[in-house]
Amino acid sequence: MRILVTNDDGYLAGGILTLARAAAGLGDVTVVAPDREQSATSHSLTLHYPLRVRSTSKGVQVVDGTPTDCVMLAIGELLEDRPDFVLSGVNHGPNLGDDVLYSGTVAAAMEATILGIPAIAVSYAGKDHERLGDWDAVLVQLLEQLVHRTDFPAETLLNVNLPAVRPDEVAGVRVTSLGRRAYVGSLTRAADPNGREYFWIGGGESKWWGGPDSDFRAIHENFISVTPLHLDLTNYRLMEGLSGWGLKL
Ligand code: MN
């Protein structure tokens, strides 16, 4: 099995080393990853400057672009053979609920899904990223059950989140839906040392809500959450109602 590993935290992040190590037990791994932090770049594609690729002494291919660029280049040009599976992560931080819409980690898996290759995004909800190496065995155990499935669903990716506990404290694995999250106080308006106004997005507090099967709840209760995501954002339930608006020219 040929496995492509990528991420959005950059090729030096501890999380991608963990994921590549875990994947190495499942097949031939190629790592193609951004050269720098690309978190929250979502499904962004680089169109307005050329992309450069270099190889590290460990054979990692480093791209000066986004996670989506990495997957597109890897599958279209860099890899000799089309991968059987794409893994993205392990992200330093959770990707739950509405956050999947901003996530570069999830977008990389989405890009693989669009290109017809099964994909999984993996994120770690904890803050002690230097301890991600402890998750190798859990990841191998989980991924073994997923990557070999012959009935892995088409047009769907799996969004996996690891709870913010030690691996031996995980309560189990739960199949989940996306919850909802709202940020409070995450916009800062201030003045720089020259007195010029600036704005900064980030920080603040977040609140989540969602049903008993939501990804937030699973992580809150120390479960690994596995959410199937499909890319069709159509609100089918609203189609009939919208037709009733009688839009015309
Ligand atoms: Mn990230």
CATH topology annotation: Stationary-phase Survival Protein Sure Homolog, Chain: A
H/E topology pattern: EHEEEHEHEHEEEEEEHEH
What is the CATH architecture annotation?
Answer: 3-Layer(aba) Sandwich
The unique ligands bound to this protein are: manganese (II) ion
CA distance, first residue to last residue: 54 Å
Number of helices: 6
Description:
The protein has about 250 residues and is an alpha/beta fold. The protein has a single domain, classed as Survival protein SurE-like phosphatase/nucleotidase (Stationary-phase Survival Protein Sure Homolog, Chain: A). The strands form three sheets. The protein has a nine-stranded mixed β-sheet. Helix 4 links the parallel strand 6 and strand 7. Helix 1 packs across helix 4 and helix 2 packs parallel to helix 3. It is globular, with a radius of gyration of 19 Å. About 40% of the residues are buried. The model has no long low-confidence stretch (mean pLDDT about 95). The protein binds manganese (II) ion. The site of manganese (II) ion (MN) has 6 residues, from strand 5.
Q: Mind sketching the topology for me?
A:
Elements: E1 2-6, H1 14-24, E2 28-34, E3 53-55, E4 61-63, H2 67-78, E5 85-92, H3 104-114, E6 119-124, H4 136-147, E7 156-162, E8 172-175, E9 180-184, E10 187-191, E11 197-201, E12 205-209, H5 215-220, E13 223-230, H6 236-243
Parallel strand pairs: 1-2, 1-5, 2-4, 5-6, 6-7, 8-13
Antiparallel strand pairs: 3-4, 7-13, 9-12, 10-11
Helix pairs in contact: 1-4, 2-3
The structure holds manganese (II) ion.
